[in-house]
Amino acid sequence: MSSYNTNSYEEIEDPDSVSLSGYQRPKVNWYPGHIAKAERQLSETLKSVDVVIEVRDARAPKATAHPSVGKWTAGRPRVVVMTRMDTVTAASRESWRRAYEELGADRWEEKLGGDEKNRNAQMRKERTKYNDDGEQDSRTNLDGGIEEVLFVDAKRGQGTHSISRAVYRAGRHVNERRRRRGLNDRSLRVGIIGFPNVGKSALINRLLGRKRARTANTPGVTRSLQWIRVATDKTSTGASGSSSGNSRGSGQRPKKGFELLDSPGIIPSDMLDQTDALLLAACNSIGVGAYDNQAVAAYLCDRIQNLVLMGKESIAAPQWRDRCLERYGFDPILPLSEQKIAARWGSESTDGSSKTWIAFAAANADRIPTGEDMLFIVADNTCKGDPENAARKILQDFRVGRMGPIALQLAPESEVDEGQQSVQTLRKDGLNVRVVADPVEFKRASEELERKKQEKIDQRAKSALEAAKEKGLELPISMDEVVEEGKESKEDVKKPEESEVGKGLFDGW
Asked: Residue 204's closest CA among 213, 215, 195?
C-alpha cells in the first residue's frame, strides 16, 4: 500500500470522466417545485427570525452546505449542526471541528456583498453591546454569523441538549435589549434550514421531546414552512454558564422557550459540482427519480475505495474492507486475479465458467476492482446476477450503517482545499490508482500518458482546422508549414560545381 501515498497523486477525481471500463455516469440534478417555492418563501421569512440553525450531514459536510445560506442569514447568528454523528468516526468529527475552527465553517460559501457584510458587522456590534459585562466575541475566525459547530445524533438524542444552550447564547441579546427598553421577554424565533433528508424534522422532534414534525428516511417529506413552539421552564444563564438576574432583582428568570421554523429541504437549482450531487444521492438527499441507482452505487464504491487507497482508511472507512468480505464475499482492495469471485460480469460474451474466468483474470491481473466491477461482483455473489438489486443493496447498506462508520468527505487542511481534501485517481507515474504496476513500468506508463495527451491535442487541432476550412476561414501559416516549405525549397536547389564557386563575385571592379 506504500505506492498509494497521497503525495504521489497527480489528478483529482472527476465524475464526468470515463472510467476504466469505458462507462460515463449520467448527470444528477433535482429541483422539484415545492423546493423552489420554499426557497422563495425562506428568503423573506428568515428576515423575522433571531437565530438560524443550519443542519448538515456529517458524512458529507461540504456537499450538504448550501452556498447561498450565508447571504440569506446575513445579520443573524447561525449555529451549524452536523447530524448523524454516529455514522462517522471520532477522528473524522474532530478533523472537521478543527478545520471549521481554524478556517471557518462559512469559508467556501458564496462571497457576501457589501450589504451582507454590513449586516454581519452590525449584528456583532449589537451583540457585543448587550453581552454580559460587555465581553468581546472570541470567535474572530468566523467572518460570517456562525457561532458554533455542533455534532449530534438526532435519532438517539446524543448532543441535542447543547443545541438549546447554543440557541440561547446566540440569541440572548434579543431579550436583553428588550429588558433595557422596559419590555417583557419574548420567545426566540429560530429557523432550521438544510438540505433534504439531513435530519431537520428529527432534530425538531428531539428538541420537543415528542413527535410533532413528520419524519421519514426519504427526501421531500416536509413540503411547507411551519412554526412549532418549544416550551421550557428552565432558567436563563449568561454566556459563562452562570445564572443571571433580571431587572426586578430575582436571582433567576424563566426562559420563554423558542419557536422553531421547520422548512423543506433546500438544494441549489443547478448542481454544478457533480461530485457533490452523486454524494447527495448516495446519502439519500435527492429524489430517487433524479439518478440511476447503479451509477450512484458504483460511484460510492469508487469513492470509498479511493479514500482507502489514499491511506485515509482509519478516518474515512475503518470497517469497510472487512464488511465487504463478510457481506459481499470479496476484498475491494486486492487485484482481481487474486480473488475467487464470479466472472460472468467480465464481458457480454462470458458465461461464468472457470475457463472464462481464467482468461478474464489473466487480462486484468494488474487491476484492482473499479466501482462497476464491485457492483457486478455484488450482483453475482448476493443478488443472482441482478445489478439493479445489487445497487439498491449497496446503497441501503451504506445508508443504514451496515458498512460501519463512513465519511465520504475529508476535512480541508488549508484554504485552497475548496471545502474538502481532494480525492485523486492518478499517481505521478500516470497510472490509475487501481492499477498494480511494478516500479520498472513507471517510466513506460508516464511516456504512454504523455503520448495520449499529445494525441488528444493533435486531434483537437485537426478538428479545429477542418471546421475552419468548412467555414471558409483563412488561417495564418504555422511554423511547421514554413519549416516544411523550407526543406522542400532546399531540396530543389542544386549544389554548384567547385569551379563555379565565387564566380562573378568581383565583376565590375
From this structure: 213
Look-up of cell digits 456583498 = 113
Confidence of residue 300 (pLDDT cuts 50, 70, 90): very high
The Cα 208–Cα 322 span in angstroms is 39
Q: Which helix (DSSP H) or strand (DSSP E) does residue 316 occupy?
A: helix 313-316
Is 433 in contact with 424 (CB distance < 8 Å)? yes
pLDDT digits (tens, 9 = 90+) for 340-391: 665 444 444 444 455 555 565 566 666 788 888 899 889 988 998 899 999 9
Euclidean distance between CA atoms 427 and 433, whole angstroms: 6
Closest CA to 374 of 13, 8, 21: 21
- In the numeric block, which cell numbers belong to residue 178? 428588550
Per-residue pLDDT tens over the stretch 122-131? 888 877 777 6
- What is the CB neighbour count within 10 angstroms for residue 458? 10
Q: Which three cell numbers stand for residue 283?
A: 446519502
For the beta carbon of residue 50, count every other beta carbon within 10 angstroms.
21
Taking residues 293-312, report their average pLDDT. 91
Q: How distant is the alpha carbon of residue 197 from its chain centre? A: 16
CA nearest neighbour of 276 among 16, 2, 3, 8? 16
Instruction: Choose among 89, 71, 69: nearest CA to 80.
Output: 69
Inter-residue long-range contacts of 342-348, CB under 8 Å, 24+ positions, other chains counted: 342/377, 342/380, 342/381, 344/376, 344/380, 344/385, 345/373, 345/376, 345/377, 345/379, 345/380
Three-class DSSP category at 311: coil
* Sign of the alpha-carbon dihedral angle for 239, 240, 242, 246: negative
Name residues whose C-beta falls within 8 Å of residue 317's C-beta, 6 or more positions apart in sequence. Answer: 304, 307, 308, 403, 404, 405, 406, 407
d(CA 374, CA 380): 10
Q: What's 143-212 look like in SS3?
A: CCCEEEEEECECCCCECCHHHHHHHHHHHHHHHHHHHHCCCCCCCEEEEEEECCCCCHHHHHHHHHCCCC
Give, as one character, the DSSP assignment of residue 38.
Answer: H
**Three-class SS state of 426:** strand
